[in-house]
Each structure stands twice: as C-alpha cells, then as structure tokens.
Amino acid sequence: MASPLLKADFFQRDVLTVAQDLIGVELEWQGCSGIIVETEAYAVQDDPACHTASRPSSREFVQKQPPGTAYVYLNYGMYWLFNLLVKGGERDGLILIRALEPKSGLVQMQARRRREKAHELCSGPGKLGMALGITGEHHGTIMVGKNRPTDCALRDSKKRPEVLTDIRVGISQAVDFPWRFLAAGSPHVSVPHGRVKVPSAIAPRGAVQPQ
C-alpha cells in the first residue's frame, strides 16, 4: 500500500518546521522517486538570502500561489532548482529540496546524469533537477491537493530519520542561519553535516553548486 499523500495543510505551517518535516518524505516525479534527505529553508521576511528579498516576481509568486506549489528557477544559466512554497503559518517561505535518496526510476536518472552510482544522482539541487528532468516548464506545478498532476506527488513516511541542523550552502547573506536540514548519516546529501565552507566573498543567493 502506498504511503499517504501530503495535503496542503502540511505547507501551511512555519517554513522551518516544514523544511525539517520534509526530511524522509518521498518525492515522486514523472516516473522517478526519491526520499528527501536534505532541505534548506528561506523565509519571506527578515531573510536577505531569500529570493523574495530581491526579486519582485518571487514576492508575487508567494502572494498568488497556494501552499505546496513548486517554485523552479534556473541557476548558473544551466541548472533547474526545485523548491516548495510554504505559506499560512508563522513564517512564509520557500524550501529548496537539496538532495534525494533515489528510490525508483534509477535507469532514467542514470541516463540524465550520466552517472551510475546512486549517491551521485541527486546529491545536490542541480543534480536533483537534472536527474528528475525538471525544467522551467514545471514552475508553478501544484504538488498537493486536487490540482496535482497524477505523475507528481509528495508522500509521507512512517519512518522518519534523525534530522540534523546546519548552515545553508553557497550564499553570501545570512550565512549563519542554521536553516539546512539533513538526514543523519545519509550518503546522499550534498555537503556532509558540519562541512559547509563560508568564504569571505562568495556568490549571491542562487549560486548553489550543482556538482
């Protein structure tokens, strides 16, 4: 029996709570799936690293779209990154899905990534987008509720891993916010716990390494 689908109210809570609770959730995407093992939270208010701090289009997206909608953007002009909208709780925001543990559709993922090993397929937001075949056409995809496409879903899990907290990756503002969440011990995360480097001058928000 398939695990239950997440509902809209899952995303109508504080963005940090949702980002943590997404660890262990299964993301199904057009014939492929994986367990979410790493997320990053970005808050609409008081977070200079969030797109809403500098992009009017992002603020409009948050205002108009329902909770649980996919926010997809192009990074480095090459890599599509997949986020989920959270709104209606204490803090609205966007959650970057940074890494998956592949579960099904591995042949498709391997072909898209030109990699064989499972831990190399989705261990970073750029890799994840490539492996799943996500593009800008998927921006605005409803991931929960009656308007959800039949081949896309988010499923709850009875087994939730231990979750670790760390700082976010590849940003130049609010670098000390402990808003990255990881499944403890997972070999599929992009950067192991405690290993994020914070150089004195790095690229702005959005410059997430896809390798």
Structural features, described:
This protein has 211 residues and is α+β, with helices and mostly antiparallel strands. It has a single domain (8-183), classed as Roll (3-methyladenine DNA Glycosylase, Chain A), CATH 3.10.300.10. It contains 4 helices and 8 strands, in the order H-E-E-H-E-E-E-H-H-E-E-E. It has helices at residues 15-21, 56-64, 106-113, 125-132; strands at 26-29, 32-43, 70-75, 79-86, 93-104, 152-155, 163-166, 180-183. Strands 1, 2, 3, 4, 5, 6, 7 and 8 form an 8-stranded antiparallel beta sheet that branches. Helix 3 crosses helix 4 (125-132). Residues 201-211 have low confidence and may be disordered.
CATH class equals Alpha Beta
Mean pLDDT: 93
Number of helices: 4
Give the amount of beta strand, in percent: 25-35%
The N- and C-terminal alpha carbons lie at a distance of: 35 Å
* CATH topology category name: 3-methyladenine DNA Glycosylase, Chain A
Biggest sheet character: 8 strands, antiparallel
Brief rundown of the structure:
The protein has 211 residues and is α+β, with helices and mostly antiparallel strands. The chain has helices at 15-21, 56-64, 106-113, 125-132, and strands at 26-29, 32-43, 70-75, 79-86, 93-104, 152-155, 163-166, 180-183.
Descriptive labels:
15% helix; disordered C terminus; 4 helices; 211 residues; 3-methyladenine DNA Glycosylase, Chain A; alpha+beta; 8-stranded antiparallel beta sheet; globular
SSE topology sketch:
Layout: H1 15-21, E1 26-29, E2 32-43, H2 56-64, E3 70-75, E4 79-86, E5 93-104, H3 106-113, H4 125-132, E6 152-155, E7 163-166, E8 180-183
Antiparallel strand pairs: 1-2, 1-6, 2-5, 2-8, 3-4, 4-5, 7-8
Helix pairs in contact: 3-4
